[in-house]
Every structure is written in structure tokens, then in C-alpha cells.
Structure to design on (263 residues):
């Protein structure tokens, strides 16, 4: 895929975000698209956001659990970038219109806050644990600029791993004081049970997922930086949310987080 088309598709995704509209899948219109092409498109998308003042504050891995892979029919992890514009306060009201959300879905996951840089490849789960300052309960509200979530892996990678907004709970827990594979997530939507899962749902252990991302991005020359937030992937199936909904979660040993949604 030539650079002119890469730029055009990144610009198209950026325009779709700001105009709050969905696009037909890139993989339908450009069947030749590769994962490398999709990554380059995502960088163009990110460059447009940075040009408007957004600042990268972390990275995310997505589609790590089998439940989410089956739901989206995407059978390998993806990755994207977090910017300061994407972060919202725990317990706050998220305006769908303000944040240009089209078809949001909530993911309960564990976020890692790094105390040290990590440079892949060659990063192990033990390296991730050693480099982590704290772990935090996190809601990521994923969203897709691809119509009706009809995505293949190349579509979601190009679309910044379908990232919308995210919030971090207030607790900051030393990851060496808890078995991250054994923690249990429980979510509610408007007070009703909305999903549960264990830390082991994420590639066997959340540190393994973060190591995968460090190594994948390291091959592309992108390091993890001290202070960055790294989202490790959903512990349970995604939950569609809309105006009027309130979503809450608790992760055993880590704490809680919640968000409300308004138009």
C-alpha cells in the first residue's frame, strides 16, 4: 500500500472521529491491506490528533481474551495509543457527543503504571512486573469508526485499536502484593450484573499481555516510557453502553471504578 493511500486512510479515520460517523471497513475497500499497512495508517491517525494538541500518555492492548476475540471475530491481539484527551475522571459523566462516541462498549481491565522504561523485544512478564509502579482498575470505553463493528484485525489496528476513552480507578496497588492472574472482575450495568472474569483471561496473566505489547511495539521502534499507562486487555466480554447508563466494576484486591453516560 503506497504512502499516499496510507495518509488518505489515516486522514479519513481522523475525519470520521471528529464528525462522529462510521466508515465501511477498510478491509472491504482495500483487500490488500496488511497489518503493517494498518499500523502505518494508525500512526497517521495519531499524527493528526497530535497536531491538534493531544499528547500520548500510554498504550493499549486489545482483543486479548477469548471471550472478546469470539465476540468481535478477531483472533489475535491488537494495539493502540492513549492520549490525554481520551482520559476521563473516575465516577464522571461521559458525554457521547463531546467524545464523538458512535457505538461504545465498556471493557473492565487492569491498567499498569510504569516506574521504568521498557524496550522490546525481549521483554518478559517478570520484566513487566519489575518495571511497574502500580496497577489500577480501569474501564476502557472502546468505540469503532468502522460501521457496526464489522472489523478484521487490520481495521481495528488502523482505527487505533478501536479506542474511545478510558478511566482509572483511585486505588494504586503494588502488583507484587497481589496475584494478578487470580483477581476477579465483576461488572454491573445500571445495577444489574453485566459480566465477570479472572485476570488469567488475559493471555494467562496480565503481565504476559503487557510483555507481548512491549515486544510488538519494540520491533516497530516504539518503547514504553516511565509514567505511561498501559492497558492490558478486557477480563470479560464487552458491554454496550449508551446515554443514561451507569457502569461499575470491582476487581478483587485492586478496587473499583465507575462511569455514567449522557448524550
Amino acid at each position: 500500500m503506497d504512502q499516499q493511500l496510507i495518509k488518505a486512510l489515516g486522514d479519513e479515520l481522523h475525519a470520521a472521529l471528529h464528525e462522529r460517523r462510521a466508515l465501511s471497513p477498510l478491509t472491504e475497500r482495500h483487500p490488500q491491506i496488511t497489518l503493517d499497512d494498518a499500523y502505518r495508517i494508525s500512526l497517521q491517525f495519531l499524527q493528526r490528533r497530535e497536531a491538534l494538541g493531544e499528547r500520548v500518555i500510554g498504550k493499549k492492548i486489545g482483543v486479548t481474551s477469548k471471550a472478546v476475540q469470539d465476540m468481535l471475530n478477531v483472533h489475535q491481539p491488537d494495539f493502540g495509543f492513549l492520549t490525554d484527551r481520551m482520559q476521563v475522571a473516575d465516577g464522571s459523566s461521559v458525554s457521547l457527543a463531546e467524545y464523538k462516541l458512535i457505538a461504545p462498549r465498556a471493557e473492565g481491565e487492569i491498567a499498569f503504571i510504569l516506574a521504568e522504561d521498557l524496550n522490546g523485544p525481549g521483554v518478559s512478564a517478570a520484566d513487566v512486573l519489575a518495571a511497574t509502579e502500580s496497577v489500577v482498575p480501569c474501564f476502557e470505553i472502546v468505540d469503532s469508526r468502522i460501521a457496526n463493528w464489522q472489523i478484521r484485525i487490520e481495521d481495528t489496528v488502523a482505527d487505533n485499536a478501536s479506542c474511545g476513552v478510558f478511566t482509572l480507578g483511585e486505588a494504586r496497588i503494588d502488583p507484587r502484593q497481589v496475584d494478578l492472574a487470580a483477581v476477579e472482575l465483576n461488572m454491573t450495568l445500571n445495577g444489574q450484573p453485566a459480566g465477570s472474569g479472572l485476570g488469567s483471561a488475559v493471555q494467562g496473566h496480565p503481565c504476559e499481555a503487557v510483555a507481548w505489547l512491549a515486544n510488538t511495539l519494540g520491533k516497530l521502534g516504539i518503547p514504553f516510557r516511565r509514567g505511561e499507562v498501559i492497558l492490558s486487555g478486557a477480563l470479560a466480554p464487552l458491554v454496550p453502553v449508551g446515554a443514561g447508563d451507569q457502569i461499575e466494576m470491582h476487581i478483587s484486591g485492586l478496587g473499583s471504578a465507575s462511569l455514567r453516560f449522557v448524550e
